[in-house]
Amino acid sequence: MSLNSTPVADRTHIGLFGRRNAGKSSVINAITGQELAIVSEVQGTTTDPVSKTMELLPLGPVVIIDTPGLDDVGALGELRITKTYQVLNKTDIALLVVDSVQGMTEEDKKILKKIQDKEIPYLVVYNKCDLKRLDLNSDTEISVSAETKENIRELKERIASLAKHENTEYPIIADKVNSGDTVVLVIPIDSSAPKGRLILPQQQTIRELLEAGCSTVVCRETELNNALSALKEQPKYVVTDSQAFKKVSAVVPDEVCLTSFSILFARHKGNITELVKGASKLDSLRDGDRILISEGCTHHRQCGDIGTVKLPKWIRAYSGKELEFEFTSGTEFPFDLSRYSLIIHCGGCMLNEREMKYRIKCSADAGIPITNYGMTIAHVNGILKRSLSIFPEIAELIG
Q: How do strand 215-219 and strand 60-66 relate by DSSP bridges?
């Protein structure tokens, strides 16, 4: 996979924070060597977080996020500042840009504490060193000039050194296969499937299997029986879209390991142990419980949408309870989770690992169980333990 085609969620996310006119946009343009961000003497030019994907040498594929100023004013300014703080949830590396002439302000100190509390690798970038020289001794500080490009090369190298410690995510499935293995991927094509293409988790799983030297067989659930019969030997794994779990489980022999894209991504992007534990809450729901169903992306919802239609229907049928459901998508994730009895999250393919783990931690801190789509569907169909057999140490958590 080329650097330019690396999915956004798998890129290192670099967030730039600071007051208005500290030079965040100018620093972005300097380190990228492109006019990616609008630069103006007018305060508040950046009114919303703006993300740009690119290759940043010597680091590689990244997402650079320019944020509104921390000293924005008025009711609208407060909303913009809230958005800026939300960006921290998906930031792998934080750059706090400070005007060297004005120095560190209370707004800068406040967000720096948040960055440190979240244990995000960071640098304090004192911009405009051509106007004022500072004597810096900390390894978390650097003086640069976006105007003259002084120390910009060193800044990029130090950003890259921070990113080396961030590559902690698991692969999707590559560590569970050997070259020559056959894996069957079941991909339903229904009214909710995007026209003319596969969704990102399916694309990424196929690519990872090909790179591992595996033979991949892709079919719909309606052709699964024929696909299995055509194989000389049983496949090592069958990976299905979670929506087809019930039909696929009935076809795949018990001795063949069955799982779903959503479960693979639970390990790849988040904390699979917490998500498995959260699924057990489906057995103790009570009338009036409120469930949050949260998706990491925004898309046009159609008739039969899994999040807003199918999951509530399946959960009500399984629990036999009168339940209330709320829905969020994209970057929106409630600060106050106390009103929910359970949170059910999508696979998180459009979220980076840091943001997915942040959402899981928020749930844990609030004492609210959290699980995901795939585990929920497997649980209500009585096959959760089977669907986790690809991860034996995790399957053991289920009685």
A: unpaired
